[in-house]
Amino acid sequence: MKKLVILGAGTGGTIMANKMRKELARDEWDITIIDKYKTHYYQPGFLFIPFGMYKKRDVIKPKADFIPYGVELIYADIDKVDGENNKVLLQDGVVLNYDYLIIATGTKIVPEETPGLKGELWRKNIFDYYTIEGSSALADFFKTWEGGDLVLNIAENPIKCPVAPLEFVMFADAFFVERGMRDKVNIHYVTPMSGAFTKPRASKVLGGLLKEKNINIIPDFYIEKVDNENKKIVSYDEKEVPFDCLVTIPVHMGDSMIGRSGLGDDMDFALTDKFTLQSDKFDNIFIIGDAANLPTSKAGSVVHFSAEIVFENMMCSIEGRPYTAKFDGHSNCYIETGFGKGALIDFNYDTEPLPGFFPFPGIGPFGLLKETRMNHYGKLLFRWIYWHILLKGKEMPISAHMTMAGKKTHDI
Question: Of 59, 106, 252, 291, whose CB is crowded by the most CB atoms within 10 A?
Answer without folding.
Answer: 291
